[in-house]
Design brief:
Blueprint (H helix, E strand, L loop, with lengths): L15 H23 L5 H6 L2 E2 L2 E2 L2 H23 L2 H21 L7 H23 L4 E3 L6 E3 L5
Antiparallel strand pairs: 1-2, 3-4
Helix pairs in contact: 1-3, 1-5, 3-4, 4-5
């Protein structure tokens, strides 16, 4: 009786663009769920009904600012898949760097330090992954015999 051979799973490398889009999607889920679950902390609904979020008065300016803040990572999902590599890399590095202090600021208004602290830590982990993917984006080297560019370290 022969023993069955183990099946080797197909584990092809994922393109950097797909990794970045997945990371921004994860960031957005964390961002949204921390806000949504934050409604269950004591006093939050009362403050909203009193026209206040943290220290800010609810207004059209506040709402437009909040929408802008949340829209940028949403657009990063699309931009990560569609921008050319060089622009993609730079855009991801800049936006992730800008969102680090914005993310840390979110802990300031949290009533539940453990909850908001965990949310901030998880968001920072995803932002660190985004920076890592962008910084370590594979380079291509031009071939001496062909105008076609091939990834460095790949032989035919």
């Amino acid at each position: 009786m022969s023993t069955p051979r183990p099946v080797t799973l197909d584990d092809r490398p994922m393109p950097v663009k797909a990794k970045l889009a997945a990371a921004w999607t994860s960031f957005m889920f964390l961002y949204a769920y921390v806000d949504i679950l934050g409604f269950y902390t004591p006093g939050t609904i009362t403050d909203i009904l009193d026209n206040k979020v943290f220290e800010f008065e609810l207004s059209q300016t506040f709402s437009a600012s909040a929408l802008t803040l949340v829209s940028i990572p949403i657009f990063m999902v699309v931009l990560s898949m569609t921008l050319p590599a060089r622009a993609n890399r730079i855009t991801n590095l800049v936006v992730a760097a800008v969102y680090v202090p914005a993310t840390v600021f979110n802990i300031a208004g949290g009533h539940y330090l453990w909850f908001y602290g965990l949310g901030v830590v998880l968001e920072l982990v995803v932002l660190a992954l985004i920076v890592r993917y962008a910084v370590t984006w594979p380079r291509s080297a031009a071939s001496a015999t062909s105008p076609v560019r091939e990834p460095v370290g790949v032989s035919r």
